[in-house]
Amino acid sequence: MTHTPAPSEAGATYRPPLVLRALTAVSVGFGVVAAFMILAAVLVTCHMIFVRSVLGQSTIWQTEAVIYLVIGATLLGLAYVQKLRGHVGVDLLPGLLPVPARRVLAVIVTALTIAMAATMLWYGWEMFHLAWERNWTSESVWKFPLWISYLAMPLGFGLYLMQLLVDLWIAAFAPPGALPEVHPERSLD
């Protein structure tokens, strides 16, 4: 017989406010965009291989496009990976702490991460704005407008910052059962 936790134990009935759910939905949406960007990078790579190997022609834009797509996907996917708790983290200390101390630690760590993301957003915006204002293009034959690829940095870190704010609210105000659980290390057996 299995034990079904009470709603207060697992936070099963807890629903964050609508604005937090909406921000989380935006993170998921950009996670899908990032996945399609990776798919596009794979297809462009296949096209490049075909053009070089089968047709014996040189390629102009493919390598650069793949680089921009993968970097863009990485940055635009930050918020989605944060939502999944997929970023690298050390969970030994939180696993040893009681819930109130774990909550305090989560608030402190999330606040520090917000400061880092805000800094990256600020400098990313400056870089994008310079590329836009000065009409910078890549040095390749393709002459791709760099503002498009540079836009991924402030956009990605802005989305990441929003997801971090959602996580901060949950860490600070959600019932204890709704806090993210520390994932114990699983054996390979």
UniProtKB/TrEMBL annotation:
Sorted alphabetically, the Gene Ontology BP terms of this entry are: C4-dicarboxylate transport
Q: What organism is recorded for this protein? A: Pseudooceanicola nanhaiensis
Q: What is known about what this protein does?
A: Part of the tripartite ATP-independent periplasmic (TRAP) transport system.
Q: Per the database entry, which stretches of residues form a coiled coil?
A: none
- Transmembrane ranges, per UniProt, are 20-44, 65-84, 104-125, 146-166
MF-aspect GO terms: transmembrane transporter activity
Tell me the keywords, alphabetical order: Cell inner membrane, Cell membrane, Membrane, Transmembrane, Transmembrane helix, Transport
This protein is called: TRAP transporter small permease protein
- Tell me the compartments it is located in: Cell inner membrane
Q: What Gene Ontology cellular-component terms does the record carry? A: plasma membrane
What is annotated about its quaternary structure and interactions?
The complex comprises the extracytoplasmic solute receptor protein and the two transmembrane proteins.
Domain Tripartite ATP-independent periplasmic transporters DctQ component span(s) in chain numbering = 42-169
- Please tell me whether the keyword Transport is annotated for this protein: yes
Show the InterPro entries listed in the entry: DctQ, TRAP_DctQ
By sequence similarity, the record places it as follows: Belongs to the TRAP transporter small permease family.
Membrane-protein topology: Multi-pass membrane protein
